[in-house]
Design brief:
604 residues, Glutamine Phosphoribosylpyrophosphate, subunit 1, domain 1, Rossmann fold, seven-stranded antiparallel beta sheet, 35% helix, binds 5-amino-5-deoxy-1-O-phosphono-D-mannitol
Length: 604
């Protein structure tokens, strides 16, 4: 997602800002920009696409001495990836960069427009700089104006602002989005959204806390807490290892990505929910006209999220859906009719089997849609329409946050289609939207849960196999839990519909058969419980994941009491991901690069 850098000092500011942005490329972006203030004049450069375009635009620019500057890589949310929407954003004599979302931007924008302020972009960010300049006119002091502005913003942000009224100062504020500052031996200051741009520049850094705001000049760094009291910076040594810096203190990328799910899901939802409807600016409703079936096609984890879509679409959008494993579909001469919307799902957008099915569907004249995490990937370029999942770059081979964001997109999309097809009432859609907003809260990893999974994992390192079982939409989650475990632990695991165990697999039941049972309170609780009891009666070792105490289980992982089965889904997702992670760690395996697997499978 978006990245921020800033610099104040006498070194080559262009190089520092551009190389800082380069280090943030891994977060994903679709445009970038820098603003440098030197001798009272701004130099601004913005470019759509990769940083090489920005480098090209800045090739003739050189700074000559002391300067302050800010830079940004933008992952489009409010408004398309254009130069006008790229940061930094200009007021009359100030520039701002921002990560996050200003939730009350529409109201602030209206008030400013009513006073005659002209907006150039479609972003929420632009209100910050205009609000600052309005306050500056009123208060005649830049810091007072900045503090007032920060107090007027609602939402999540990391902000850097530079202004001609204080040409040797960078103003900053942080709430909910990461940001840190480093100072080098010459007392030059560096800002960034994560450690990596500062490695090699500074030996120690201060990580801002939520609510922090303030300013830095060549002489001083002033930090204030949310309540306005001044506090000292807490500088800590900066690791000089880039790989470990990218892991942000986590042992593995997979672990970091499990923890990131709450925030990336917020990004997935950002700008796409109103009180009463789901908004996909990137879609045209026409895509769904004349459609009598939606066919989902994918591989691996993406196939599991597609299976969750299968349940959601039939339940909410009341449309006939079907599901295809891409590697099977492409060789079975499938019947493809033009009233089918063909939806491919892929984290990478490059998986050969899935890409081929998309080509087949296009050739057969079907309308096509891709749900993907990588903009400009082959599938995004080929499909008629694309929804980006906004999970940020996923490095662990075992997919986690990609799955979480795919399911979130599908839940939203099922409501979007439900509205078009009139299959849910306005109240039902509004209720579902309210639930969607709660997903980030239910995907936060707590220390208590993680510690529990670390302890529990030692009991599950052997045996002759695992069955992950669940019903309805918990069946694809069971499949996904089993896939995660086998990918990184190399233990045999299967996902099974809970009600199907009695038709064969129950023959395997004994104490060395481990059953991981997904037992949601709000969906088929009694039915699934009976299936678990059948296994318990045959002495299978059972780990139940539920909000409800279950006395026939050997192990029990309690999730919080949720309002709805989809929220239970996300809580259980975190549990099965952590369980796999910790089993793999105990077995001494390479969690991020498991044997025989590749992140993107571009061969058939
Ligand atoms: O990039 P894609 O989503 O198309 O990849 C599909 C599968 O190769 C992928 O999900 C794979 O199963 C992962 N290793 C799962 O963790």
């Amino acid at each position: 997602m978006c990245g921020i850098v800033g610099y104040l000092g006498k070194k080559n500011i262009k190089e520092i800002l551009l190389s800082g942005l380069k280090e943030l490329e891994y977060r994903g972006y679709d445009s970038a920009g820098i603003a440098v203030l030197e001798d009272g004049n701004f130099s601004i450069y913005k470019a759509v696409g990769k940083l090489v375009n920005l480098e090209e635009k800045t090739k003739d620019y050189e700074s000559h001495g002391f300067a302050v500057g800010i830079g940004h890589t933008r992952w489009a949310t409010h408004g398309k990836p254009t130069e006008l929407n790229a940061h930094p954003h200009l007021g009359e004599s100030s520039y701002v960069v921002h990560n996050g979302i200003i939730e009350n931007y529409a109201q602030l924008k209206k008030e400013l427009q009513d006073k005659g302020v002209v907006f150039l972009s479609q972003t929420d960010t632009e209100v910050i700089v205009h609000q600052f300049e309005k306050n500056l006119k009123l208060l005649k002091n830049s810091f007072d104006a900045f503090s007032k502005t920060v107090g007027e913003l609602q939402g999540a942000y990391a902000i850097l602002l530079v202004t001609k009224s204080e040409p040797d100062t960078i103003f900053f504020a942080k709430q909910g989005s990461p940001m840190l500052i480093g100072v080098d031996e010459q007392n030059d200051s560096y800002f960034a959204s994560s450690d990596t741009p500062l490695i090699g520049q500074c030996n120690s850094v201060n990580y801002f806390e939520d609510g922090d705001f303030g300013y830095v000049t060549p002489k001083k760094l002033m930090i204030f807490s949310a309540n306005g009291t001044q506090r000292d910076a807490k500088f800590v040594p900066l690791s000089q290892n880039k790989l470990s810096a990218q892991k942000d203190g986590f042992r593995f990328f997979m672990e970091k990505e499990i923890y990131e799910q709450s925030s990336v899901i917020s990004d997935t939802l950002m700008g796409r929910l109103s009180e009463s409807e789901v908004i996909f600016e990137e879609l045209n409703e026409n895509l769904f006209y004349g459609i009598s079936e939606i066919k989902f096609c994918a591989c691996g984890t993406s196939y599991h999220s597609a299976m969750s879509a299968f349940y959601l679409f039939e339940r909410y959008a009341k449309v006939k859906t079907s599901l295809e494993v891409a590697s099977e579909f492409r060789y079975r001469n499938p019947i493809m009719s033009k009233d089918t919307l063909f939806v491919v799902i892929s984290q990478s957008g490059e998986t050969a089997d899935t890409l081929e099915t998309l080509k087949m569907a296009k050739k057969a004249g079907l309308k096509t849609l891709v749900i993907c995490n990588v903009d400009n990937s082959s599938m995004v370029r080929l499909a008629d329409a694309a929804i980006l999942t906004r999970a940020g770059i996923e490095k662990g081979v075992a997919s986690t946050k990609a799955f979480a964001t795919q399911v979130t997109v599908f839940w939203m999309l099922s409501l979007y289609v439900a509205k078009i097809r009139n299959s849910l009432s306005g109240t039902d859609i509004a209720n579902q939207i309210a639930l969607l907003r709660e997903v980030p809260k239910h995907t936060k990893v707590t220390e208590v849960l993680h510690e529990k999974m670390k302890r529990l994992s030692k009991r599950y390192l052997h045996g002759h196999g695992f069955f992950f079982i669940g019903r309805d939409i918990f069946y694809p989650l069971a499949l996904e839990g089993a896939l995660k475990l086998k990918e990184i632990s190399y233990l045999h695991a299967e996902g099974y519909p809970a009600g199907e165990m009695k038709h064969g697999p129950i023959a395997l039941a004994d104490p060395e058969l481990f059953t991981i049972a997904l037992l949601p309170q709000h969906l088929h609780y009694e039915k699934t419980k009976s299936n678990v009891e059948e296994l318990s009666a045959r002495d299978s070792t059972i780990c139940v994941i539920s909000s409800e105490e279950f006395d026939k289980a050997d192990d029990f992982v309690q999730i919080s009491s949720c309002k709805h089965y989809m929220l239970e889904f996300y809580e259980m997702m975190i549990v099965v991901q952590l369980l796999s992670l910790e089993i793999s760690v105990r077995l001494g395996n390479d969690v991020d690069m498991p044997r025989n697997l590749a992140k993107s499978v571009t061969v058939e």
